[in-house]
Automatic annotation (TrEMBL), chains A, B:
It comes from the Bacteria. Pfam families: Pribosyltran (PF00156), PuR_N (PF09182). InterPro entries: PRTase-like, PRTase_dom, Pur/Pyrimidine_PRTase, PuR_N, PurR_Bsub, WH-like_DNA-bd_sf, WH_DNA-bd_sf. Residues 115-248 form the Phosphoribosyltransferase domain. Homodimer. Keywords: DNA-binding, Transcription, Transcription regulation. This is Pur operon repressor. Belongs to the purine/pyrimidine phosphoribosyltransferase family. PurR subfamily. Gene3D superfamilies: 3.40.50.2020, Winged helix-like DNA-binding domain superfamily/Winged helix DNA-binding domain. The keyword RNA-binding does not apply. Residues 2-70 form the Bacterial purine repressor N-terminal domain. The gene is purR. NCBIfam families: purR_Bsub.
Amino acid sequence: MQRSERLIRLTQLLVERPLQALSLAHLSEAWDIAKSSLSEDVATIRKTLAEAQRGIVETSVGAQGGVRFHSGVPMDEARQFLDGLAHKLSKPDRVLPGDFVYLSDVLGDPHVLDTVGRLVSMQYTNKGINVVVTVETKGITLAAATARHLNVPIAIVRRDQRVTEGPTISTHYVSGSTRRIQTMSLGKRTIPPDARALIVDDFMRAGATARAVEHLLKEFSATVVGTAVFMATSQPTHKMVNDYFALLRVHEVSEQGVHVEPATLIDIQNG
Amino acid sequence: MQRSERLIRLTQLLVERPLQALSLAHLSEAWDIAKSSLSEDVATIRKTLAEAQRGIVETSVGAQGGVRFHSGVPMDEARQFLDGLAHKLSKPDRVLPGDFVYLSDVLGDPHVLDTVGRLVSMQYTNKGINVVVTVETKGITLAAATARHLNVPIAIVRRDQRVTEGPTISTHYVSGSTRRIQTMSLGKRTIPPDARALIVDDFMRAGATARAVEHLLKEFSATVVGTAVFMATSQPTHKMVNDYFALLRVHEVSEQGVHVEPATLIDIQNG
């Protein structure tokens, strides 16, 4: 196998499965290539992607060792992406009755989903997250995209109880918008032992839903590492969860339009 | 920029965004590299990935021309993946009351989701699909993974009506399992004009849900290109939809266990 082929194959294997450890020892056997050559190839890929701000290639040693790829987005591209989204979502025809903002099209757009997944995963990398938790329905696509870049499973909290979830744990909470008592349930088998969970959702106003998920996860003895939402309202300023990250912040929803602002991102690639 | 760097950057750009056209003219300017060199690089990537059965690099000419990547899975790996899933899902502890099979863990596993997305997209490539439609809740993760590899948006049919969807079209149908009248609704803005839809869902017994989605999509004047499900039951053999593809087929669900068989795949990479 020529060097050019190895670079192509290695790049594909790394970027297609973010955070999945690739064993060079195993590849060295499968491809019949000296491990030292593969290590040099990996170094070239690491340098090239780092310079382009397109992700971090990390090598860990030891029995569980291997090469892993952290997905990245160049900071100028990320800012451009969020500015573009903020502009698009600020249009008056997005305002729905009750001061909601229409998001279903962007939450179904494959490029938006993938980029949001990258950006959120970048904010929570190396925090030992082993499950992404969301609430049906609108947050699921975002949560799945984030879980892909964090290489962890996704668990979906349901508002009803279905036989298909197997045994569940249920809790109740008072909805922030309707002030009614709601039920949440989560399949017992979907949360790993010693779970470190990232909550992902589409929209946060007061944070009642996110706090309810936190309470539900306590029943699983899980640690909540953080909450990431696609869009949060600026009012109320005090949310019911402490630690949350919002990609977009929305001010003043009215029939004249919406004012949406992009978040400040942590630049892990130059951090 | 050296050739090795170009191969790495091009491979990443192609595989990270399946079916997104990459303009070599644009890259030639941005990277200050002769377009002929980039074309040679693309030819090397095409050959390498084709030989490894890891996707197809396609070049189209003309004003809208560019280079696109069709995600692939080597056939032996695909068969191994489906055999492994069938084995895992055949265990007696998967059987739920009512002869349902517990699937939530696999439908939340990032590797399963990505591989299923690849396999389903491979079966429906080049069919002009411009939207993937699913029904909340369990099918959403699969549908999103498939939509990513087809590079099309996902639209989610809901069983309730929410203000956040904007104007919706609703239809009614009789559920296959409960025999009760159910409502389905879909946001008017989520289906493009001249839609060619692929329906993706987790489970099919008689096909009542899939047929209901077909009927709902008729109200949008959409063409249904096909229906893909993760798992279908062998009984009843006659389903309420004509054209469907199931990755796994389940026979004889009982307390002793389940018998799950993998599907036969179309090998587009050697077709």
